[in-house]
Specification:
Helices cover about 15% and strands about 35% of the residues. The chain is an alpha+beta fold. It is extended, with a radius of gyration of 22 Å.
Amino acid sequence: MEYGDFEKYLNFTFMGNVARDNAEVLRQLAMAPAPPTNARLKGAVTPDAKVSWAAEDDAERAGFEILWRETTDPRWHVYDFVTFPGESLLKGVSTDNHFFAVRSAGKNGARSIAVPTEMERRSPPLPTPAKQ
């Protein structure tokens, strides 16, 4: 019984296509501006979501794309384009049934990896002191 990878079962055309696709992804990422940092999401139990992020100055960056997707959707969609880092208010967008991310967009059209937002955590309220 044959067991393992044998050359006769390899599809070299397919493997070459995969290698070319991987090289193109790396080329695009190398041309893209640095991804944003510290991506945060606020707005729980409110009708609007607030996405914030930080980024170093970059002369080659055109701006940032705020991405979103339904919790069941496998692909990101561009919700908005913003030219400066900071905070963006997404009116009428619930944080309950969407995921959010931010990515940098270069003047050359290249885009960085999407950085998913993290929900800001609030510490639970402290217990009220007992009345005496």
